[in-house]
C-alpha cells in the first residue's frame, strides 16, 4: 500500500496499508516540554503555534479541526498530553512518528503497526482484517475501508461513527438516534431500519427514536416506511455513537401498499403460540349473515375451536370455555357474543385487533388456564371527523371518530343494533311467530396525549341481549365494563402503565306463564381490578416487565322475586360471594446472543374467599350431600374463608437458525380461581360463575410447547408446526342431573378431577398478493378423568374419557382472490370431527318399568362437521372527491346446505328409543351487506 503525505492532508489509495509505518514503533519521547495557551486562538492558529514550538510537522485536513474548541492552557506539557486533552470527546485520534517528527491526525480510526501473517493472502476488497491472536490477544479486528466500495444509489457521504479506542475494541457497537421528516421536522414512527446482509432490524418509536447494534466496521443500512422515501446509508462503526436522520416524503403513486411492520415477528419473537388478528382481516371472510366476526375468524386458526355451530365461547388447546381470559381494553368481558354465539358483541369498526396467547402468556396476565384474548379498541382520528358503518339483513353498525383537540385528543363512538325479529316471524313455524331476538351494544373511547411521555385512555362499553323462543319466558343478559389506562415514561429506560377497570355481567329471566307462577330471576358477577406494570430496558440484553395487580370479585348467585300481586312464587336469595385475587409479577426478555432469545417470568398468585358467608363441611370418605354435612361454619364480613395461591412460571425460548427460521419452546403453569357452572353440552348465556371457596378448589394447569417457525419468499409465506401438552388438575364437572341454578349447596353437585390435552398445530399463511389467505390443521385430543372415593363421584369407572369438545381433526381454509382493485371473491371452508356424545345402548325392565342403559361417557360421536361459505366483495369507485367510500359484500353461508347437527338427543316413542338431531343452519343462508366509510 502506497502512502502519499503532505502537510495538512493525506490520502489512502486501494492496495496500500501505511507500509511506511511498519518499520517504526511508537516510542514517543516525553522529554519535550511545551507551554502553550488555547485562549483566543482558532484551531488552525493553535496547531500552527504547536508546530513551531514542538518542531513536529502535522498532517490533517482543515475541516477536521474547524469545530474544535480549545480553551486549555498547557505548561511544560508533552505533545501527547496536549493532543490527548484537546482531542478528547471528538472523533479524532493521532499517531506520532518520533524519529521523523511527524504527527498524523486520524478521523475516527487508529493506526495499527502490525499485520497478521495471512494478510497478503486476503482479497483487497475486504472490509476488515483479522489480527493474529498471538500479536493482539483476543481483540476484534481493526477496521479498514475501501473508498471504491461506496456505490449507493443516492451517493450520500459515508458516515463514520465514534472514535476508535485501541484499548477497548469490541466486535459490535450501539448506534442510536432520531429520525425526522425533512419537510415538517416531525418525528417518523414505525420506520424500519434494516442492516443489509443480516437479520438486524430496528423500528422507531412514536418519538422517532431507535437503537441498533451493529458490527464493528462497514455497514450498509436501509430505511423504509409508509409515505417516506427509501434510503440507504453507508456507516463505519468505530465506537458507540448517534446518527440522526432527516428523510424525505415519498409522493409516488403506488399500485398496492403492503404494511409489514411485524413481518418477521412470528419467527423472531420468543413467545410461541401467539396470534394477532386485525379487524380488517375479517372484512372479506364470508360468515353467517354477512357479519364481521373477529372471534369467528379466531376459530379458523390452529388450536382454537368451539363445541358446535352457534356455541358461545372458545375452546383453546383442549381447555374449557371458562379457561379463557377475554379482555376489552384491559377490562374482562364475560360474554363477548350475541344471540347464542352467532354474532360477536364487538363493533368491528371500533375494534383495532385481538392478540391471542395460547401458550405462555405475558407475565402480567393470569387467572385462566388456557388462553388470553386481548382485544384492543382503535384510537380516534385527531385531525378530522371520520366514520364507518354497515347495513345488513340483521344488524346495523356505525362508528364515528371525533378530534377533540388536534393532534392531541380524540373520541371514538360505536353503536350496533339488531332487528332480527322479522326473520323469526317470517319462518313457517307457528310456535316461533311470537318469538323475540334482539341485541345492541355501544362503546365510547377517549384518548388524550399529554406529551410525548404521557397519555391516557378511557373506555366504556355496554351490551344487552333479549330473546324469547317460548311465549312465556323472556331471557336477557348484559355486559358492562369500563377502564382507564395511564401510560407514562419515567425516564429514558423505564415506562409505566397504570390500569383501573370494572366489569359486570348480568342475566335474568322474566317468566309469565299460566296460573300464579310468574317470577323474575337475576344473577350478577362484578369485578374490579387495579394493575401497575413497569417496563425497564436495563441494557442491550435485558428488558424487564414487572408490577402487581389486585382484583375484587362480588357475585350474587341468584335472586328470585314474585312478579305481580297474585304470584305464589316464594322469594329466594342466595348468599353473596366475595373474594380477593392478587399477583406480583416480573419478567425478563434476555438476549443471550443474536440467535438465542429467552423470555423468563414469574408470578405469585394469591386468592382469598371472604365472608360474610356460611360454609358446610362434610364427612370424609362419603359423597357430599345434605345427609353427610358435618358442620356449618359462619364467617363475618371481610373474614377470610379460605386462601389459595402459589408461584406461576412463564418460560419461552427462541433459537434463530437463520433470519427466517427459528425453533421455539415454552412452559407455563397457572391457577384459576373462578369457574362456570353448567351441565349443558355447550355454553349458555345463563351459566353461572362460581368462586373457589372452602369446598371448591382452584383449577391448576401446566403446559409445554415446542415448534418450528419459517418464513418463505421474502416473508410472503408463513409456515409453522407446533406441538403442545397440557395437564389440568381440579377441573370441574357435574353429577348427572345436577341442579345448579339457585342451589345454596352447589358443591354437592360438583366433581373435581384431572384433564389432559395434547396436539399438533400446522399453519401455512400467504400474507400478500392477489391470492392470499391461510390453511390451518390441528390434530388434538382433550380428555378428563373423575375418580372419587365413592361410585357417585366417579365417571366411567375413574378412566379418562373425551371431553364434550374433543375433536381430533380440525381443518380450516381461508382464501381471498382479488381480480381487480374493486372486485374480489373469498372462501371459508371448515371441517371438524364430530364431537363426543353419550348414546343409550340398551334397555332393561325392572319392577314392571322400562329403563335405558347408556354407554360410557362420550363414547360415541355425532356426524362430522363441514361447511363451505363463499363471498363476493365489490368495492366502490376510487374517486378522490366523494362523500364516502363504499363497498358491498354478497355472501352465502353454508353453500352446500349441509345439515350439520348441533346436538343429538333421544326420545321414547311407542316404547322405542329414537335419536333426533337439531341444527342451527341446515340450508344455505344468503346475505348482502352495504358498507361505507368516510
Automatic annotation (TrEMBL):
<protein>
    <submittedName>
        <fullName>TonB-dependent receptor</fullName>
    </submittedName>
</protein>
<keyword id="KW-0998">Cell outer membrane</keyword>
<dbReference type="Pfam" id="PF07715">
    <property type="entry name" value="Plug"/>
</dbReference>
<keyword id="KW-0675">Receptor</keyword>
<keyword id="KW-1134">Transmembrane beta strand</keyword>
<feature type="domain" description="TonB-dependent receptor-like beta-barrel">
    <location>
        <begin position="446"/>
        <end position="894"/>
    </location>
</feature>
<keyword id="KW-0813">Transport</keyword>
<keyword id="KW-0732">Signal</keyword>
<keyword id="KW-0798">TonB box</keyword>
<feature type="domain" description="TonB-dependent receptor plug">
    <location>
        <begin position="290"/>
        <end position="368"/>
    </location>
</feature>
<dbReference type="InterPro" id="IPR039426">
    <property type="entry name" value="TonB-dep_rcpt-like"/>
</dbReference>
<comment type="similarity">
    <text>Belongs to the TonB-dependent receptor family.</text>
</comment>
<dbReference type="InterPro" id="IPR036942">
    <property type="entry name" value="Beta-barrel_TonB_sf"/>
</dbReference>
<dbReference type="Pfam" id="PF13715">
    <property type="entry name" value="CarbopepD_reg_2"/>
</dbReference>
<keyword id="KW-0812">Transmembrane</keyword>
<dbReference type="InterPro" id="IPR008969">
    <property type="entry name" value="CarboxyPept-like_regulatory"/>
</dbReference>
<dbReference type="InterPro" id="IPR012910">
    <property type="entry name" value="Plug_dom"/>
</dbReference>
<keyword id="KW-0472">Membrane</keyword>
<dbReference type="InterPro" id="IPR000531">
    <property type="entry name" value="Beta-barrel_TonB"/>
</dbReference>
<dbReference type="InterPro" id="IPR037066">
    <property type="entry name" value="Plug_dom_sf"/>
</dbReference>
<dbReference type="Pfam" id="PF00593">
    <property type="entry name" value="TonB_dep_Rec_b-barrel"/>
</dbReference>
